[in-house]
Amino acid sequence: MWKYIIIIVVIAILAYLVIAYYPPLGGKSSAESQKRIHESPNFADGKFRNQIDTPMDYSFKDTVDALYKTVKGTPNSRPKKSLPSVPFDSKAFSDSGDDQVIWFGHSTLLLKVSGVKLLIDPVFSDYAAPVRYFGPKRYSYELPATIEELPEIDAVLISHDHYDHLDYGSIRKLRNKVQQFIVPLGISGHLTKWGVDPERIVELDWWEEQSFQGLKLVSTPARHFSGRNVNNSGSTLWSSWVIMGDRSKIYFSGDSGYAPHFKEIGSKYGPFDLALIETGQYDEKWANIHMTPEESLQANQEVQGKLMVPIHWGAFTLALHSWTDPIERAKRAADQLGTPLATPKLGEPVIIGAQEFPTSKWWEE
C-alpha cells in the first residue's frame, strides 16, 4: 500500500516540477503585467474572455471520436514530399523599397512595411509541441531560411501563446536579433523566462495602439483562447493585428472563429491593402475558435481586404482534413466571390499594392 502511495507522490512531484520549471511551457507574468491584466475589460473571473460567448464544450464522446479518427488516419493528411519553396534572399529583401510579405508556412510571416522589418508568430522548429518528436511535425524538411539567415528584425508580433504560434526554440534564437517584441497582455511572462529583456517587450490590450518607427500597430480582437499547459488556460490574451505604414495597411487575423469583430475592425481601420487570414486547421466541433475557408473569405470581405493571403496551413497537420483542403476550398470561395487571392509558395514574396501577385496552384505539383 505504502509503495503505491510513494509512487503517486513521486509522480505528482515530478509533474509539478515539469509544469513549474520546464522552459517551453512558459513563465508567469510580472506583478506589473498582472496589474494590467486584472484591470483589462477583457479579463473576468480569472481568465481572458472573448467579445461574444464562445463555448468550447468537448464531450468524452467527442474525444473518443477524435482519437478514433486520428488513429484511423485522414487521407492526404500530409504531403508526400517537402513543399516547393523559394530560397530567401536577405540582401534583396533588405535592399528592396517595396512593402512586402514572405510566408514561411502556417502563420509565420516576414514583412517589410515602410522599411521596418517585422516577424509575425515565428515558429521555425520542426515540431509544434513542447517536446521534440511529440506533436505535429512540420511538412517541409527545410524552410526558405533559418533564423540565422534572416536580417536583423525590428519587431516581432505574437498573436497568442499556443505552440504553433509562440515557439520556445525560435524565441531563444531570435532574442538577440530583435529590437522589440510587441505582444498581447500576459505574453511577456513567457518571453522573459526565455531570456528576452523586459525592456524590449511591449504588451497591448485590445484596441491599444503602439507607434513604432513610423508604423502604427494595433492589437485587435480575435475569437480564440490561450494556454500552454494544464493550469493556465485563458491567462494570456489572444489578438489579431493591424499594421499601418505610409503606403500600406495590413491585417493579420491570428487564430479566430468567425465573429462580429471582423466588421468592427474593417470599420475602424479598413480597407486593407493586404489581409493575412487564418484558413486552415478547422473542424465542425471547433467552429467557435477556427474558421472554415469560406468563413475566412467572408472575414476578408468584412475587414475590407483588397488582397487576401490564406495562412495557418501548409506546415502542420492539426485537424482531420486533408492538408490541401484549406487552399482548395479558399480558392473556390474566392473565385465565387471575385476576391483576389494570393497563393505564394513558401518564401515567395508578395509585393503589397502590386498589380501582379502569386497565383500558382503549387500544391498540385
TrEMBL record:
Span of domain Metallo-beta-lactamase: 118-313
Protein name: Metallo-beta-lactamase domain-containing protein
Function: Counteracts the endogenous Pycsar antiviral defense system. Phosphodiesterase that enables metal-dependent hydrolysis of host cyclic nucleotide Pycsar defense signals such as cCMP and cUMP.
Molecular function terms from GO: N-acylphosphatidylethanolamine-specific phospholipase D activity; zinc ion binding
Origin superkingdom: Bacteria
GO cellular component, one term: cytoplasm
Organism: Cohnella terricola
Catalyzed reactions per annotation: 3',5'-cyclic UMP + H2O = UMP + H(+); 3',5'-cyclic CMP + H2O = CMP + H(+)
InterPro entries in UniProt: Metallo-B-lactamas, NAPE-PLD, RibonucZ/Hydroxyglut_hydro
